[in-house]
Amino acid sequence: MAFLRKINARAKADANTGFGTNASSYGGRFITKNGNANVRKTGIGVLDSISWFHTMLTIPRWKFFFIVFAFYFLVNFLFASVYCLVGVEHLNGVNALSRLDKFGQAFFFSIQTFTTVGYGHISPSGFMISFVAAVEALFGLLSFAIATGLFYGRFSKPKAHIRFSENAIIAPYKEGKALMIRMTPYKNTNLTDAEAKLTMGLHIEENGKMVNKFYTLELEMQKISALTLSWTLVHPITEESPLYGLIEADYKSLNGEILVFLKVFDDMYSTTVVKRASYTFEEVVYNARFLPMFTRSENNSKTLLHIDKLNAFEKL
Question: What global pTM score does this model have?
Answer without folding.
Answer: 0.78
